[in-house]
Prior knowledge:
3 strands
Amino acid sequence: MIGAGAVSAHDFTVLVTPIYVAIDSVDFNESLERESNDRPLELPQFQDSLVNCVLDANPNTIVLFNAGSNVDMSHWQQRAPALLYLWYPGQEGGQAAQRSFSKR
């Protein structure tokens, strides 16, 4: 994770750059996004920087977003060539997202 010390930004860039298309998934955790809780519009810590880092390394990045309401994407939205707002797709959400990218 960028910023948490697990992977440096340089190491991450080396991993993402040679990939034809990168997929970056961002979301709010259960403590921020739940019933009877007002959350900020900003992404949780490090997620804006993660999206920007992936876009810097690979401009062919698809951003997947899981959230139940509005979110501030102004820091990277214009740079992302594709954005798939999944809302909360449930248990089979990963399969549904994968099918949306598969060739027919």
